Amino acid sequence: MLSKILINFPLIAVVLIAMMGLSAMVFKRNIVKILMGVTILESAVNLFLVATGYREGGIAPIFTNAPSTHMVLPTVQALTLTSIVIGVATSAMMLSFAMIIYKKYGTVDVRKIRKLKG
Amino acid sequence: MTISSIAQHLPALLIAVPLLTAFLTPLIGGVNRTLRMLWVALGISATSAIGLALAWKVFTTGTVLYVFGAAAVGQVLPMDSGGIPIRIIFEVDAFSALMIVIASISAFAITMYSLVSESECSGQDGFYALLFLLVVGIMGMVATGDLFNFFVFLEISSLAGAALVAYRVDKGVAVEAGLKYALLSTLGALCVLIAIGLLFAQYNALNLATLASRLQFTTLDKIALALLIVPLAMKCGAVPMHFWTPDTYATAPSSITALLVVSSQASLYGLFRVLFSLYGHLVQFNYATFGWFVIILGVLSMFVGVTMAIPQKDVKRLMAYHAVSQTGYMLLGVGVGLAVLGNRSALNAYGLTAMAGGIFHIINHAMYKGLLFLTAGAIFYRTGTRNLNKLGGLGHTMPWTMVFFMIGALAIAGIPPFNGFASKLMIYESVFRFSPFLSIVAMVVSILTLASFVKVFHSIFMGPRREEFAAAREVPAAMIFGMALLAVVVMLFGLFPQTFIDGMITPAVTALVDRGAYISAILGGH
Amino acid sequence: MKMTKIVRSTADIFYPFCLIFGFYVVAHGHLTPGGGFQGGAVIATGAALLIVARAYEDISQRIRKNALKLCESIGLFMFLAAGLSGLFLGHPFFANWLAQAGSIFGQPVAWGPNPGDLNTAGLLPLMNIAVGIEVLGGLSIILLYMISGVKEKE
Asked: Domain for residue C52, yes or no?
């Protein structure tokens, strides 16, 4: 039982972090907090991607001082890196949107900024 | 570089040329305005020419493969890879080529139009850089044969799209719409990323063809399917998730709205690719369930879209709801094809025709909806309002815009001899054999569309001249050129539908249905 | 808004170290963990340090937006040029034709445990440098724009 939990520990963490992010997105009224939720959710997804790439006893593909030439193909690491870069761009853009909204409306409360009707 | 080597590298140039244009625009725009306009015009002409040439190559010689970073262009499976394509591969088959044709024509017309329509705004370097990035995103999404690469291009197009929606701050309203779009796109893209993770963890592959050949349809695969379908359906504006479309389409600059339509169709492409090439033909895959899922999405989109459109007062909001409604036709046509995919006789009897109708409608929709949004932009350019109650009598002063609007409106309502009629007729006839009720719904929606556009036409262009619009003149030549290009395509597709169906649509349908060919193009054998 | 002299001096002292460490990460991207994006981000952290420690007006004199914009465009252009360079020699886009060619960055990689040779990996170091330039420009300019958008309340 315990070993099962230990093996799946990263995945359990993924679910918990994703829940935190989603709940922040759904229940918070402040745009900045919603954006924090998005970032937390992104971290959860990145953790999930990296966790799928774990190989027991694998050797990191760094050529300097590697004990052997049999190394792990770092595909998921590359994916995670790409996704982090995209995440940086997304959050920078959305935060600047939030800044402009605050400048124009004087508030970042989503209940008060609904000028666009459904 | 000789002509033949350029022909060999077309898929790479399709991405590289717009990227290069985007990155150098700030440098060149710093010199002066005229040079920037020339540079942008040159960039988009080159991109469109490459796109059309690539599509021509695909339609004449078959699927084009391009392996990035390999020793040779066609080296799909390197010697030491153990039969796995490890590099990013572009797999351009007939369906991708069709989407590239759409993107090339629309992007060219739209950029020519924006050269004038946006010339009064500040921050143009950023505008054109983002516009080209959006084009890169669309081209990449439809050309790639790699699931993760698809995600990257999806994000590029979402980010560029959101920034462009917010480009005219418009007292914060546009930024609000941009934020909404960016939030939803990010959430959707994260779902896609989880699905990619689930698939990669099981099958150690990211290449669509390799994944398709290995798929077992386990529980995780079903979750991945749901996580792929829902965000892509949201991005293409199907009804339960359509709420972002009116806000985004209404507040974006008109030229961008026209390009966003193409971008949402690239998501539609992704949806069909996942359903047909990745999951279709699996033994356990229940065609009827997923076919009906797509059909119901389509019927809901058609009906809700048009009923929401009728009471709108903002002309672009109204057109945005019509865009939702027209997306429904594509989903309906292709959904019918998916529902009978397992039944060879039904597929040959009407399934393929329904799919051809749906796919023909994609290209038709991009053309006439782009045209309509551009005319709405022309009206806004001269009058400064989008409110139907305030507009009127423009037919006296803006005759060309009126003609183009009329062509677009008749095409969207499915009146012969315009292109909307050709594809809608195929959908009506084939869907009638599948389920008469659905066909009748489609016709009713078409009639409602016509009614709605007659009202819009009347309130914008008819009536006496108005005092407040006395200064409104016809728009500049570059804008007319952009609209005229799309109008000519609309007429051509309407007058000679059979030529285009035989040349482009039928190969696209075949490519979509034939999952084995998609796989064997990469892995060989079969 | 200005911080105390202690904070400002510390930031000034740390700034060059940030830059050097960032450039180290960029230059060794093909040998050790890290690369263009990570190194560029480290360099942008240096800019962030200065921005936090000093007022915006002070910083805008020292770090120029136009120079950063130039960095962004040039970095991206270099990256694409590196990818496109193969096309002129008959290789596919992004093909690593410089690797093991004997010229610059063209030494073959030594197998087994070794201290690492900077002069390997062909196009990869060039691309890392291009991405490093792009990211240091891009991230710093995002920070600068954001800080210039914040309303000074005093």
From this structure: yes
**C154 found inside a domain:** no
In the Cβ-directed half-sphere of B262, how many Cα atoms lie within 13 Å? 35
The size of the B-C interface in CB pairs under 8 A is: 51
Chain C residues inside the 8 Å CB shell of A65 = 113-115
* CA–CA gap between residue B371 and residue C43 (Å, rounded): 46
Task: Please write the tens of the pLDDT for every residue from B2-35.
Answer: 677 777 788 888 888 998 888 888 888 777 888 8
The number of folded domains in chain C is 1
- Residue boundaries of the structural domains of chain A: 2-53+73-105
Selection from B327, B345, B346, B326 nearest residue B336 by Cα: B346
pTM of the model: 0.92
Instruction: For residue B331, give how far its alpha carbon lies from the nearest alpha carbon of chain C (Å).
Output: 36
Packing angle of the helix pair B399-412, B436-461 (nearest 10 deg) = 170
C13 touches chain A (CB under 8 A): no
- Among residues B187, C52, B350, the alpha carbon closest in space to that of A35 is found at B187
CATH class of A2-53+73-105: mainly alpha
ipTM of this complex prediction, to 2 decimal places = 0.91
3-state secondary structure B428-494: HHHHHHHCHHHHHHHHHHHHHHHHHHHHHHHHHHCCCCCCCCCCCCCCCHHHHHHHHHHHHHHHHHH
Q: Which range, of B82-86, B218-222, C90-94, averages the lowest pLDDT? A: B82-86
CA dihedral B282, B285, B287, B288 (to 10 degrees): 160
B357 within 8 A of B423, measured Cβ to Cβ? yes
On whether any CB of chain A is under 8 Å from the CB of C153, the answer is no
Contact A38 B155 (CB under 8 A): no
